[in-house]
TrEMBL record, chain A:
Keywords assigned by UniProt, alphabetized: Nucleus, Repeat, Ribosome biogenesis, rRNA processing, Transcription, WD repeat
Domain C2H2-type: 33-56
Gene name of the record: WDR75
Protein name, entry field: WD repeat domain 75
Biased amino acid composition, Low complexity: 747-759
Organism: Myripristis murdjan (pinecone soldierfish)
From TrEMBL, chain B:
Identification of the protein by name: U3 small nucleolar RNA-associated protein 15 homolog
U3 small nucleolar RNA-associated protein 15 C-terminal domain mapped to chain residues: 345-491
InterPro entries registered for this protein in UniProt: U3_snoRNA-assocProt_15_C, WD40/YVTN_repeat-like_dom_sf, WD40_repeat_CS, WD40_repeat_dom_sf, WD40_rpt
Xref: PROSITE patterns: WD_REPEATS_1, WD_REPEATS_2, WD_REPEATS_REGION
WD repeats: 118-159, 244-285
């Protein structure tokens, strides 16, 4: 085994941001949402991620504003802790340890503690009225309202389904902020408004019905004038409270709505969608911002790919789309609409899905396959070829081939040659044929270049499973169950057949660079085979349960994932693996890709050399995007993040800048005039630093501080300083001249930095005053802070 | 918020002819003018001088038409029997014609009575022509002889008796006054030189020769006879250059377009074919109502004149460029240009507050209904008469979209008698179209499922259903026949084709039998 102590598997972005309800800050400027193991703070206007509140060690299960301080937020996590954050600055303030598994969704802090204690994990939804008089919870077919004052709970039940086939299961609820009214959403799309529920018998409810399938979220606006609801239809419905016939709609939000949040001032709404998206909506029902994360469905039908141009990770995203996801910035770049059809938001409907996609080497062409299979009708297949348009910087549809094959397409690949003028695409299908598609320049009917079928091949009416072009594009290997056939794309001659029974071939890969004479394949009978194409013989084979085999496009390395999540990185020509790792994650690795690095790593250690040119990303069974990181890289990342933190703490206030500048000058002066004794400089002391850096809202009131500050001024100077006063006077003059010098440069306005302009210019008297303040003793402050 | 994505209308490749420069050129003629003559039109000859009148020989008359007249400008009626081969001299002043009564007559174009009568042949004279020096006449006759006559003296100069059958075509050289070529029913072409008393070159066409044509350079000779058009290289001693077999009946007439780039041949099979003279490929084809006997092309291809066995003369004039524009302008009166640019070129000033108006998406009628989820109405709009007949692909696309949305059944159900018969009418018209069948067959099944309870209640619907049943039965019959033919062809191919070592290539293979065979040979 190769030592691999310094290579670690880490999560790499793309975590869910729609897991829990997002939270809007009081001024509607910031948006908080739980995202994996951290809480993300987005700007609601620019869509940028402002802070990443890291600290939890497990999934964050809830985020909530602190009702007593609107600049703080609580977060709870599955690791059993509740943390209090200052989310504007991204600082962790407090950690409350809680031994239990916290996975409830707290919705009102006044009952926060209560929630933690009651641990109602099984409840679907919990809500309390704004006055905190009661708490309502719904589970299954029961609505339970608990009144704090009376210490009494009422339970209301609905029948499972009535004659009309309505399904009454509760899905969500919301309490009216002023009236005694609870809105509940139901499985069959109805919304019930419950009133008079403080009596066991005399409760009433009214029904609103617009949604055709389950309501996933209902929410009252803070004023209680409107009720918002959303569901699978991906339409946000705004009902007027007490005038329910009047509705506003915001249709086509892209994907099913999972959560709705409203800012405390009612200015903004925020909807979370099932495609990992947050939409910020103004109260006039207009979309103002969209925050899109990595879309992850149940499975990735297309393979993971890397766009050669943008170096973005490409996989299928929301239905009928291909998403381009930047790995460096952890942000979705854009969605490419492949199907170009109106998406009907209805469960149980068979939709077109993108099942295959492939890029050519330079990223000029993209080929996609979409399919739709209905129960008893024929399979609908479309092969689309997209050309990269330099002007619009995106892909433009060039050719659509409807029904390229009679059955499902099993594999598709582009020819790899970088220099050749003609590009070739090969698609293999379950109908027993493989087809080669080529770009044709002109035709009497179509304008411009288009793709057409060049060759149809078959072998013994077997089903082709995988296809692969060699690195120089001179050979095409296609596996037909147990037989690998090697073709020459230039003449479409069958050059040779390779077979290594038993077991059907599952994966095929040509070696790269120095190993280009090798062809590797894995079989269903747990064999990894390597054929030498020069001698057409089996070079070596080993018994190994490989689930995924892929080659690094930039080096001769190949990676093989075992079905028990083991990883082997090897060169086909060498018997010893370069790197091996057992159980890199729980479950099976479903997809993986080598993404080229922007800058090469200079690692000389043998075990991590394979990560020098490209990085290996993989998707686990649970759709987590993970990657390998070396120790050196990790250190570098840590250092850069630390530097960022330090930079952050330097709050750029005029006051601070002024002091900082003077400090620098004085330090210089100290070096010159040996006045090292004066160690009590105000800005140097820890207390002052803390005073300056602590947000104003956590400090005591200014009047309180002022009296103490003034008192501290009365303390006499020490003897040492008296002695050096004469020196000081002289140096004062120097300083003054320096100040003038600076003022003149500022006047020229050439080298003046933004910081300097921000700082108000000081008069001489003020400067002198300030200097005197600095000389004073500030021990009073430290005592204040300690208290 | 994304906007509504309209229904995608599938674009099907256009079937039929390719659109080339040639088709555009040869299609650019107006609707033909048809003139009824007294009998079969045997010859058409254009005057070489402007205004390019043409002489039409039909039965016992020769009519001369002006370029745009529908009435003859002049008629020569003094023939005792059927006239043949009325031809203009190169100055357009004289006209010569043969006759069934073996007399050759020479007319002044402005006069009425024959200037000269050349008697000497013993049988009908089918071929007459002027030599290039304008003083001699060539004639060919059914008495197997061809003769040269002197016009001023009206005497016979020479007589050649080399052919062994009727002489039905002949042509004189435009460059040399002594050379002429005749074609005969004895399958030969003979090149004569008036300076010697026998033929200097003989070519065998293989079929009775019906028509001859010399290229302007006179290096190449084209002959038509039987179903063949043959091109001979005279400079290489009459070597056959190419043989064309594009007609399925006797080719009767040949003609060269004015620039010499295209060759036209007319045949009894009612077609005129246009060949490219560089590669001799057919580039265009005209259809006519009856067998064609004669063909004429005006200078600059201004008009195509065709004479047929039923005595109809068909004249097609070229569309002038202004006319084409005028017609298209009349068809659609669009709003003036300034309507569209109104206010568009206004540049906002510095202090102006810009109010951006949302761009309204234009949607088709059916898309508007689909957007509102009115599925039945969407189908109704797509089934409107105009769409249904002119653009069936739109109707099919809407049906497909409804199927994708899972609401096709709802859209099809609940129709009254009129609506249902309209729907069935559409299905009867398009169900067997292979482009639409994958979409329409499930829809038809659905309709039958929904409306099976109302069968027998309405005579209109029952008639339509009966038609549908007939159509399907016929289609099944066709499919069976085709499969049988396919099976026969496969057996023939497998027994006749040599076994190839190359693995199966080509676009498609007929069926599994051949496929298995081909892949067996791979090993």
């Amino acid at each position: 085994m190769v030592e691999h102590g310094d290579i670690r598997v880490v999560h790499r972005g793309g975590s869910k941001i729609n897991f829990r309800e997002p939270v809007l800050s009081h001024d509607s400027r910031l948006l908080l949402c739980a995202s994996g193991e951290c809480v993300k703070v987005f700007s609601s206007s620019t869509e940028e991620c402002v802070h990443d509140l890291q600290g939890h060690t497990d999934l964050v299960t809830g985020v909530l504003l602190n009702p007593s301080n609107h600049l703080q937020a609580y977060s709870c996590s599955a690791d059993g802790t509740v943390r209090l954050w200052d989310f504007t600055d991204g600082i962790l303030i407090k950690v409350q340890l809680h031994c239990h598994h916290v996975s409830v969704q707290p919705l009102s802090v006044s009952v926060f503690v209560y929630l933690l204690m009651c641990m109602c994990v099984t409840l679907t939804r919990l809500l309390s009225s704004s006055q905190g008089e009661y708490i309502a919870s719904a589970k299954g077919l029961h609505l339970e309202v608990y009144f704090f004052k009376k210490q009494k709970s009422y339970r209301f039940s609905l029948k499972e389904d009535n004659k009309k086939g309505a399904k009454n299961t509760f899905t969500c609820l919301s309490c009216h902020p002023k009236d005694d009214c609870i809105a509940t959403g139901h499985e069959d799309g109805k919304i019930r408004l419950w009133r008079n529920f403080n009596h066991k018998r005399e409760y009433t409810y009214s029904t609103l019905h617009w949604h055709h399938s389950a309501v996933s979220s209902v929410r009252f606006t803070p004023e209680g004038t409107n009720l918002l609801s959303g569901g699978v239809e991906s339409v946000l419905v705004q009902w007027r409270y007490n005038q329910e016939t009047q509705k506003d709609f915001l249709p086509r939000l892209g994907a099913a709505i999972t959560h709705i949040a409203v800012s405390p001032d009612g200015e903004l709404f925020c909807t979370a969608h099932s495609d990992n998206k947050l939409t910020v909506i103004q109260s006039c029902v207009k979309v103002s911002a969209v925050i899109q994360g990595l879309v992850k469905g149940e499975s990735v039908r297309t393979d993971l790919m890397v766009d050669p141009r943008s170096k973005a990770l490409v996989l299928n995203g929301k239905p009928g789309h291909l998403q381009f996801y930047s790995l460096q910035r952890d942000k979705q770049l854009y969605n490419l609409d492949i199907v170009q059809q109106e998406y009907i938001h209805e469960s149980g409907l068979q939709q077109f899905e993108v099942v295959k996609a492939a890029f050519d080497t330079r990223g000029n062409w993209l080929a996609t396959v979409e399919e739709r299979k209905q129960k008893d009708s024929t399979l609908e297949l479309n092969l689309k070829l997209w050309a990269y348009d330099e002007q619009t910087q995106s892909f433009v549809l060039n050719t659509t081939v409807s029904g390229p094959h009679e059955a499902r397409i099993t594999a598709m690949c582009f020819c790899h040659t970088a220099d050749s003028q003609t590009t070739m695409l090969v698609s293999a299908s379950q109908d027993g044929h493989f087809k080669a598609w080529q770009l044709e320049s002109n035709h009497y009917f179509y304008e411009g270049p288009f793709w057409s079928c060049d060759f149809v091949g078959a072998y013994h009416s077997l089903v082709p499973e995988c296809c692969c072009f060699s690195a120089d594009g001179s050979l095409l290997a296609i596996s037909f169950q147990e037989v690998v056939t090697v073709w020459s794309p230039a003449s479409w001659e069958l050059l040779t057949t390779l077979s290594q029974p038993p077991g059907a071939i599952r994966d095929l890969c040509f070696g790269r660079q120095s190993c280009s004479k090798y062809l590797l394949g894995t079989t269903a009978k747990n064999l990894l085979c390597c054929w030498n194409l020069l001698t057409c013989t089996l070079e070596w084979s080993t018994s190994m349960d490989v689930s995924l085999l892929l080659s690094d496009p930039l080096s001769e390395n190949m990676a093989a994932f075992c079905s028990h999540a083991g990883l082997f990185v090897f060169k086909p020509s060498e018997p010893r693996p370069l790197f091996s790792h057992k159980a890199i994650c729980s479950g099976k690795v479903t997809r993986a890709v080598f993404a080229p690095r922007e800058e090469m790593l200079e690692s000389c250690e043998e075990s991590s050399q394979w990560l020098n040119r490209s990085q290996l990303y993989f998707l686990t069974q649970y759709m987590d995007l993970m990657t390998f990181i070396t120790k050196a890289e990790e250190d570098r990342l840590m250092a850069s993040s630390k530097r960022l933190v330090i930079d952050d703490s330097v709050a750029v206030t005029p006051f601070y800048l002024l002091l900082g500048k003077h400090r620098q000058q004085q330090q210089e002066k100290q070096d010159r005039s040996f006045s090292a004794e004066r160690n009590q400089l105000p800005q140097g002391s820890v207390a002052i630093k803390e005073l300056l850096h602590t947000p104003a809202h956590v400090l005591p009131s200014a009047s309180f501080l002022c009296s103490m500050f003034v008192r501290s001024l009365l303390i006499s100077v020490t003897d040492k300083e008296k002695k050096s006063e004469e020196e000081e006077m002289e140096s004062d003059k120097e300083e003054e001249s320096e100040c003038e010098m600076e003022a003149s440069t500022m006047g020229q306005g050439q080298t003046a930095e933004a910081q300097e302009t921000a700082a108000p210019a000081l008069t001489k008297a003020q400067a002198r005053e300030l200097r005197r303040v600095k000389k004073l003793d500030h021990s009073w402050l430290s005592s204040l802070l300690d208290s | 918020m994304a906007s509504f994505k309209p229904t995608k209308i599938q674009v099907y490749p256009k079937l039929g002819e390719k659109v080339t420069q040639d088709t555009l050129y040869w299609k650019n003629y107006k609707a033909p003018v048809q003139i009824k003559e007294f009998g079969a039109v045997t010859n058409i000859d254009f005057s070489p001088v402007a205004p390019h009148n043409y002489a039409v020989t039909a039965f016992t008359r020769i009519h001369i038409y002006g370029p745009f007249s529908q009435e003859p400008v002049k008629s020569f009626t003094r023939f005792k029997d059927t006239a043949y081969c009325g031809r203009f001299r190169s100055d357009g002043q004289l006209l010569v014609a043969g006759c069934e009564d073996s007399v050759v007559r020479l007319f002044d174009v402005s006069g009425k009575v024959a200037l000269r009568m050349f008697k000497g042949h013993t049988k009908a004279v089918r071929v007459t022509d002027f030599t290039s020096d304008r003083y001699h006449i060539l004639t060919g006759s059914d008495d197997y002889t061809c003769r040269l006559w002197d016009i001023p003296n009206s005497t016979e100069l020479t007589s050649y008796q080399e052919h062994t059958d009727y002489i039905r075509c002949g042509i004189t050289s435009k460059l040399n006054r002594d050379l002429f070529i005749t074609g005969s029913y004895d399958h030969t072409l003979k090149l004569f030189d008036a300076r010697v008393n026998k033929s200097v070159m003989t070519m065998d066409h293989g079929q009775p020769v019906e028509s001859l044509l010399l290229y302007p350079s006179e290096g190449l000779l084209v002959s038509a006879g039987g179903r063949y058009v043959k091109v001979w290289d005279l400079l290489k001693g009459g070597q056959p250059l190419v043989s064309l077999k594009n007609h399925h009946k006797t080719v009767t007439c040949l003609c060269l377009s004015s620039n010499g780039q295209r060759l036209l041949s007319a045949s009894l099979d009612r077609h005129v074919k246009v060949y490219n003279t560089t590669n001799y490929k057919v580039v265009h084809n005209f259809d006519y109502a009856a067998s064609i006997l004669s063909l004429g092309l005006a200078p600059d291809d201004e008009s195509i004149v065709v004479g047929m066995t039923n005595g109809i003369l068909s004249i097609k004039h070229r569309k002038s460029s202004e006319e084409t524009k005028e017609i298209s302008g009349q068809q659609k009166r669009r709003p003036a240009y300034r309507v569209f640019v109104k206010g568009k070129n206004y540049v906002p000033k510095q202090d102006d507050y810009l109010v951006s108006k949302p761009v309204k998406q234009h949607l088709a009628k059916y898309d508007k209904q689909l957007k509102r989820f009115n599925v039945s109405k969407a189908l109704d709009t797509a089934l409107e008469t105009w769409t249904r007949f002119r653009k069936p692909e739109i109707t099919v696309a809407v049906i497909k979209e409804l199927d994708r949305r899972g609401t096709l059944k709802n859209a099809l159900a609940g129709r009254d008698e009129r609506g249902l018969s309209q729907l069935l009418n559409f299905l009867v018209g398009n169900l067997v179209d292979p482009r639409f069948a994958p979409v329409l067959v499930p829809a038809t099944e659905m309709i039958l499922d929904i409306y099976q309870s109302v069968i027998g209640q309405s005579p209109v619907v029952d008639v339509q259903l009966q038609r549908l049943q007939d159509l399907l039965e016929r289609e099944i019959g066709y499919q069976q026949d085709l499969l049988e033919v396919l099976g026969m062809l496969d057996t023939m191919f497998t027994s006749s084709l040599p076994r190839k070592e190359v693995p199966c290539s080509g676009i498609s293979r007929p069926n599994g039998l051949a496929q298995g065979d081909a892949s067996l040979t791979v090993l």
